[in-house]
Design goal:
- It comes from Alicyclobacillus ferrooxydans.
- Its main location: secreted.
- The protein has ten helices and 14 strands.
- By secondary structure, the chain is α/β, with parallel strands linked by helices.
- The protein folds into two domains: 30 residues; 278 residues, Glycoside hydrolase/deacetylase (TIM Barrel, Alpha-Beta Barrel).
- β9 and β10 form a beta hairpin.
- α3 packs parallel to α5 and α3 crosses α10.
- The chain is globular, with a radius of gyration of 39 Å.
């Protein structure tokens, strides 16, 4: 009895299925044999190709500023031959390149490398210390667009960062070092072996005093230590003051000569330049060339007592450095940014 009921239920379900298929417009035979219908027309897909405009990188070109051009400079400047000034030297200075020092006198090695690359790119000629001194002594000539690279203080970053970058760019520099820094041990200054390695690599090493690179408060006015007789809270006699400067300058010169084995006769004044007592003491200690922080260019007639320099390490990018050199040299040339080229329009393609 039970099996009969199952057969009857199965028959009813089969009949119901046939009725549903008939309602869908399919016969039972079609329902068994028809494949799954395929989609013959797929929707149109639109693809959009967007060409992003390239990130604008500023470009610069050397141009003449007519208002800066004097009659005497016409024969000295020829932009077609990349000549911006002749018969003068711009002495540029740098200080520190420590990676974690926050100071206006500190610059990153990356920026320093970019500065040197820009000097190459715009056809400046970095002359050696020997060329500079020989030119001031009227023994040799110098190329157009001449610059002399100088570095003050003798920090360790000069050895770790400045030296490799100079060598990669086939340039040399003049390093004025505070020799007390070498005697004091690991204080952030180069060691004597590092100074010797710098000299062996072709760098000039000169004096920045032994230990007079600091300021003294004289009645509320900060004065370079070598420019005042006020010492350790007391006033020295003129003789004591002269002797203090003399022994400091002499110690620095003799130390460099002892460690490097070559004569030293150049000094860079910290904080500007010396007074008459300091100059007399430095001359007596064996110095002949005095580098100041007074801005300006130098000619073969410039006094060796007053060599001008400009601190380009204070400028954040190579373009400002180049223009500072040009302005200092009195050149009518200027590095001018060029207008960016128009970017390509957005292209839309349908497939």
């Amino acid at each position: 009895m039970s099996s009969r009921k199952n057969i009857a239920v199965a028959g009813l379900m089969s009949a119901a299925m046939m009725t549903m298929l008939a309602g869908c417009g399919l016969s039972a035979t079609q329902a068994k044999s028809s494949p799954v219908p395929s989609i013959s027309h797929q929707p149109k897909i639109q693809t959009v190709t967007v060409k992003k405009p390239p990130r604008h990188v500023p470009t610069y070109a050397m141009e003449l500023v007519p208002s800066h051009l004097s009659a005497s400079q016409v024969s000295d400047v020829n932009l077609k031959k990349d000549i911006y000034y002749t018969n003068r030297v711009v002495v540029i200075s740098f200080h520190d390149m420590s990676l974690h020092l926050n100071s206006k006198f500190n610059m990153s090695p990356t920026v320093f490398a970019q500065d040197l690359q820009s000097l190459h790119q715009y056809h400046f000629n970095a002359i050696t210390n020997q060329q500079f001194v020989g030119w001031m002594q009227h023994r040799n000539t110098i190329p157009a667009n001449a610059v002399l690279l100088t570095f003050d203080d003798g920090y360790k970053s000069m050895y770790t960062h400045a030296l490799p970058i100079l060598l990669r760019n086939h340039m040399t520099g003049t390093f004025f070092i505070i020799t007390h820094g070498q005697d004091a041990g690991p204080t952030g200054f180069m060691t004597w072996p590092e100074v010797q390695a710098m000299a062996k690599a072709g760098m000039a090493i000169e004096s920045h005093t032994y230990n007079l690179h600091y300021l003294v408060d004289v009645h509320g006015h900060l004065t370079a230590a070598f420019n005042t007789a006020y010492y350790q809270g007391k006033w020295q006699t003129p003789t004591q003051y002269f002797e203090r400067d003399y022994h400091d300058f002499l110690t620095a010169r003799l130390q460099i000569e002892q460690h490097l084995g070559h004569p030293v006769n150049e000094i860079a004044w910290p904080y500007g330049y010396g007074n008459l007592v300091a100059y007399d003491a430095a001359r007596a200690a064996g110095y002949s060339y005095f580098f100041t922080t007074a801005s300006g260019y130098n000619t073969a007639k410039t006094s060796s007592w007053y060599i001008r320099r400009v601190d380009v390490g204070l400028y954040p990018n190579p373009q400002e450095v180049i223009n500072k050199i040009l302005t200092t040299a009195g050149s009518p040339a200027e590095l001018v940014p060029q207008a960016p080229q128009k970017s390509n329009p957005v292209n839309v393609h349908s497939t």
